[in-house]
Amino acid sequence: MREKKEKMNTYNKNELFHKYYDVWIKIYKVGAIRNATMKKYKLTLKWLKKIAPSLKIGDMDRINYQQILNKYAEKHEKQSTMDFHHQLKASILDAVDEGLISKDPTRKAIIKGKVPREKKDKYLNQFELQKLISNLNLGKEVNYDWMIYLIAKTGMRFSEALAITPKDFDFPHQSLNVEKTWNYKENGGFEPTKNKSSERKIPLDWQTVIQFSELVKDMEDEKPIFINNKIYNSTINDILKRHCLNVEVPIISIHGLRHTHASILLFAGVSIASVAHRLGHSSMSTTQKTYLHIIKELENTDIDKVMRALTTLNN
Description:
By secondary structure, the protein is mainly alpha-helical. The chain contains 14 helices and five strands.
């Protein structure tokens, strides 16, 4: 009953928009989304309070909304502004449905943003990855180097790799079941995957099957194989950095290993659809957008192949 009362007392045209948005988050998002996503909504709320502290719901129109986006875009890249827009838009459309705003102010909104920062190398080529793997300490017991190796071989997200248990390996069918993540940012524990598409079976090569079947044979079936104490992303990145320096390859992050895995598959001629499924992307468009630079490079190579093929068709 408290939730209903809070909603009725808050939703009126004279209320401040950021207060409306705050209540909207509590009613519609708490308990329905992952903690990491909730933090993004709360960050959007923080910026909204800063940008439009006195804007009332009833005064929200296209000009005011565009001004909010423009102000946010002054300090953020275009993609961040797009995410900010999407999180606000959902609540605004609800306000339109409830008659608190007369027309949709988000229609035809222009998304701006700062020029993206120059990105560092995010992936290694196959030769560099091989050098990195040769430097890993892959002994008879599970350690963080084994996790680095498994991510390089599967393209899993860091949180997905942390959640892997012996039970997730299907050795007879040479596959790995990804159906959960590990909440390493807070107090640990299993959580759902990023989205439904992230639940997948990743085919494993025979070498990885042999290695991990031996490693996990005496471990508890449902206990994460890489978790002993609280683990931090930065800890694994430091280990990975050390190995990169040892073999003189570009320094990448643990997420960069995921990019490395995908790029090697794309350069090997694996279809975008197969790569998207292996990575657990919700759609091929995500894969195409993320690896656009590689796809363009492959297209240039294809053009050369086309030209060589056509030159043989002489009369």
